[in-house]
């Protein structure tokens, strides 16, 4: 059998980096390009962010920004925090992390397992709001004795470590054969550092993989369900502030991947390749598969897969969660879409800044106006479907007469409508919505977005 011993480390932190490269075999088109994945979840903290976390702490120690009795503080969607919490535990620091309230319970549990203090804050607020993840983390770091803000969004150690390690690893593991790099864009550190190295040594084509509505790829900035990738923009944010570490000139192009495609790819990777990975990995692989279908057999594509699916079991691998959001069919029938029959996708909405008078005028021009109108965030978009977190409420047509004409509908709307996944079991949905009045509005979801509105009675 030869030498079966593994590496020996003085510290868990010595195990960061040098992650395996694995070839995809079963989900790649026949006769197409080779597709390999960089298994970053095999880092000791479970994600690609271990690299940046360790690099940022070491640099801060060297510069004196982080003192021996210091406190590590960061705003994070989870993975950078987990990496920093691991480093903090191994090097004897306290740590405090501010996380969006939509972060998975698994990530929160991991942070606390490392001894970190976790502070949840609303995830969908304008950048100027003091509760914003980055703003609140900066405030806590400033007000905490010995506090040091890691600032993954602006810390040059983030992309630099990928230029020193991730890029050279991929080049060496492929013996210089890599032709294309595919990576998601979150803070931008991974794609910037890794891509910079591979472009310099081999002229590698760099493809950014981005959620469809993310601002990086030109989306409207509305919420999406894949965590740890992309750029959400609250419509009331004054300036669209992108991370300083992201070199926007580096990607040759950006592939925009819808949530449904990302999550279905994630499930295929688990069931057909034996790789249990997170949603952003699904985004990267979906982009890589598109690329593989359009390139010849001589292409060698490497996709960076940031984290493990183990921290998303309550979401991406939970059939109930996926079904209620319209990502998955219940597997029994009749389904909601069977009951609805053919329908014209489209949703009449009023953004929150619309006045009551303007909405009355719009409805008066319709031959068959709906009984209720969905009120949404004032987002500049031509979308015909709406992300559920952007739905603010609902306002009844017959209630408009009693409202002040100049009031904004966002201030007088009622609660958001109930939602159903288009693939849910219709009988179960009827039972769940039995407390609603027959004319109450219900939004029908496909891949996490509201595509049409019906009255509860339409569902039986």
UniProtKB/TrEMBL annotation:
Residues 13-307 form the Tryptophan synthase beta chain-like PALP domain. The keyword Cytoplasm does not apply. Its cofactor is pyridoxal 5'-phosphate. PROSITE patterns: CYS_SYNTHASE (PS00901). Belongs to the cysteine synthase/cystathionine beta-synthase family. It holds the Pfam family PALP. It comes from Pseudonocardia endophytica. Keywords: Pyridoxal phosphate. GO terms for molecular function: transferase activity, transferring alkyl or aryl (other than methyl) groups. This is Cystathionine beta-synthase. InterPro entries: Cys_Synth/Cystath_Beta-Synth, P-phosphate_BS, TrpB-like_PALP, TrpB-like_PALP_sf.
